[in-house]
Amino acid sequence: MNADGLAVRCQNIVKIYDTGDQKVTALDQVNLDIAMGELMMLVGPSGCGKTTLISVIAGILDQDSGSCELFGENLITMPSNDKLNFRAKNVGFVFQAFNLLPSLNAAENVSVPLVINGMKRAEAERKASRVLEQVGLGERLTSLPAQLSGGQQQRVAIARALVHNPKLIVCDEPTSALDHETGHTVMALLKDVALQKDRALVIVTHDARVFNFADRIAEMDDGHIIKVVDSANGTQTSLKEAL
Amino acid sequence: MNHIALKMLMGDKGKYIGIVMGLTFASLIMTQQPAIFLGLMTRTFSFISDVGLPDIWVMDPKVQFVDDIKPMQDTELYRVRGISGVEWAMPMYKGLLKARLTDGTFQTCIVVGLDDATLIGGPPVMVKGNIEDLRRSDSIIVDIDGALDKLGKPSPTPGNKPIPLEIGDSLELNDHRAIVVGIAKVSRTFQAQPVIYTTYARAKNYAPRERKLLSFVLVKAKKGQDLSELTRRIKESTGLSAYTRSEFMDLTYQYFMKNTGIPINFGISVLLGFIVGAAIAGQTFYNFTLDNLRQFGVLKAMGTSNWVLLRMILLQAVLVGSIGYGMGVGLTALFGYSMRNTILAFRFPWQLLIFSGAGVSLICIFAALISIFKVIRLEPAIVFKG
Ligand SMILES: Nc1ncnc2c1ncn2[C@@H]1O[C@H](COP(=O)(O)OP(=O)(O)OP(=O)(O)O)[C@@H](O)[C@H]1O
Ligand SMILES: [Mg+2]
To answer: Which residues cross the membrane (chain B) (predicted)?
Structure first.
């Protein structure tokens, strides 16, 4: 793999949570590269460190040692304001619990990353509406999250994650709050609309039914990445059985 | 981001109303209680402010406030009249006397004796009758609040309101007949007793025989006369105390401030209002922030700076603060208006708006600060927690 085409390069990442009375090593010497245009899935048993790893990758959590480069930039050495701007421009988030702002309607929710990046409200909402059309919610622009189904809310969240054209989108369990069919639609949307040549997707999931959307799957256990498999060569079947 | 902050705030109607109510309550207490306090304190000197014409009040040097009467000899009046710069000087008697009502009961009254010739120092507003009628023999003028209540004749059906004292009715003051010839409106004083006006000579008859009966000498300065210069001259040549009208009001006011429990009591209730208001509003605002912590976390993860979040929270605090303040002050004004004809003391100068405004601002700043601390220390990584 060509280093220039790399979206993420994690080397020897260590993250220890210190809760006072005990220390939990959530990430123990993790190495992982993710290419541009790649959909990488992170799988593994509960507590193995998946969420911790994507938090470090997305730049919202500082590792204790090791380096994590995002498009060649080492976030941990960046001044905090630059890091904030970097994140605002380059990272999109999708959460298990959607995390939409409940008092904003769909278009307003989707416009938030644009507003954070300094775009005027009206223009941001216009652009947000166009992206909502792309995810099939052109009719629900003014609906509040509470008026939308779980699948629709997650589509709003996906629109929000890609409205500002970030180079990386991280998703933590995007389908586990949804039924199988809806989860499938959401994954299809991520793969078809969100994934692009100049953008990488990292998706944490427990949901074996969506493994076939992945380009590669990294399997974690106890703070380590135990293997990375190419889903194209059929290894996903064995993984499905393993989990 | 401002519109997002406002939508966050008003999205949850219940909490939004809760915060505004807390601040309304605090602002109400912090305005209404001091207004009553100021009203009461104004009453301490309303006897002085009711007497319009004289510029200077002369009295015994030991007098501490308007109700603290230390009589002087009548000759002091002539000494004051002789001082240069004095246009005129009139005697005034003010004392507490027991009036015997028609049903045989006694009522302590404030009796004011005015200069027989000029009647200077008389009641500010006559409701019935004429002040000149005081020149008739045995005549008195009573204040309307006293006439309606404490000086009234008992109702034939027990428990009902007394029958008001009217022109032509009579009382006994120290075994002397006194006939009502007029009803006056006077500002309420701090003492709740009825006020009776009569002439200086008659007041001397009513009062128990004493060597000294002159309470105040009321002085009008000659045109162009410097008042502080004149008071100094009166003090020097008589050895008495002389105060301009406003100095005497201030002396009285200060006496009540220093020597009564009133400021303390009101101070405590204002403080309690502030603390309770701060607790309710601070608590609900903080809870609101806690409930929205995840939303703030999401904004933070998506790249919103602490500075912007701080501005959002401040905006929310300023908004609820302004609404709560406006409602509290409005309710206070309404309260004062609806109480305008009752015994309740109430005074609402513009300075009070600043006072309660500062109080509400403090509460909001406090509430916003604890919220801001929480949000600034917030780890954006919480957004991935379930
Ligand atoms: N803020 C924290 N403080 C202390 N320990 C933490 C914290 N966050 C995570 N941990 C611990 O770190 C380890 C890894 O947690 P992490 O959330 O990354 O796991 P996960 O793979 O995402 O699990 P799940 O599949 O259940 O979401 C766990 O043992 C967890 O208890
Ligand atoms: Mg997790």
So the answer is: 16-40, 264-288, 308-338, 350-376
Kindly list the residues from chain B whose CB atom is less than 8 angstroms away from the CB atom of residue A86.
Answer: 303
In this structure, is residue A1 part of a structural domain?
no
Is residue A236 in some structural domain? yes
Q: Could you give the CA distance from residue A74 to residue B180 in angstroms, rounded to a whole number?
A: 98
Which candidate, A215, A204, A237, places its Cα nearest to that of A48?
A204
d(CA A45, CA B336): 68
Which of A86, A75, A40, A6 minimizes the C-alpha distance to A213? A40
Structure tokens at B40: 């009461």
* Res. A64: pLDDT tops 90: yes
Q: Domain count of chain A? A: 1
CA nearest neighbour of A186 among A96, A51, A111, A126? A96
Position A1 confidence tier, pLDDT thresholds 50, 70, 90: very low
Q: Are strands B86-100 and B106-114 parallel, antiparallel or unpaired?
A: antiparallel
pTM of the model: 0.77
Contact: A172, B305; criterion CB under 8 Å = no
pLDDT single digits (tens) B203-252: 888 888 777 889 999 999 988 888 899 999 899 989 999 999 989 999 98
Chain B residue with minimum CA distance to A170 = B384
Which of A116-125, B335-344, B372-381 reaches the highest mean pLDDT? A116-125
**How confident is the model over B297-333, as pLDDT tens digits?**
999 999 999 999 999 999 999 999 999 999 999 999 9
Among A48, A96, A205, say which to mutate for ligand 1: greatest number of ligand atoms within 8 Å of CB.
A48
Q: Which residues line ligand 1 (CB under 6 A)?
A: A 17, 19, 24, 26, 46-52
B301 touches chain A (CB under 8 A): yes
How many Cβ atoms are within 10 Å of B380's Cβ, its own excluded?
Answer: 23
ipTM metric? 0.90
Check CB contact of B380 with chain A, cutoff 8 Å. yes
3-state DSSP helix/strand/coil % of chain B, to nearest 5: 55, 20, 30
Cα(A49) to centroid of ligand 2, in Å? Answer: 7
Please report residues of A whose CB lies closer than 8 A to that of B383.
60, 93, 95, 99
Atom of ligand 1 at shortest distance to CA of B381?
1
Determine contact, residues B210/B74, Cβ cutoff 8 Å. Answer: no
Indicate the length of chain A as a whole number.
243
CATH assignment at residue A120: 3.40.50.300
* Disruptive mutation site among B8, B382, B384 for chain A (greatest number of A CBs within 10 Å): B384
Chain B CA closest to residue A144:
B11
Tens of pLDDT, residue by residue over B264-297, are 888 888 788 778 877 877 887 888 888 888 899 9
**A157 backbone dihedrals φ, ψ, rounded to 5°:** -60, -40
| Most confident residue range from B32-46, B55-69, B280-294 | B55-69
Q: B93-117 pLDDT, tens per residue?
A: 998 888 888 888 888 999 999 999 8
Structure tokens at A201: 């997707």
Residue A127, domain extent: 6-242
Nearest to A29 by CA among A235, A228, A229, A220: A220
Cα R_g (chain B), whole angstroms: 30
- Mean pLDDT computed over B195-201: 92
- Say if residue B177 is exposed, middle or buried (CB neighbours under 10 Å; 0-12, 13-18, 19+): exposed
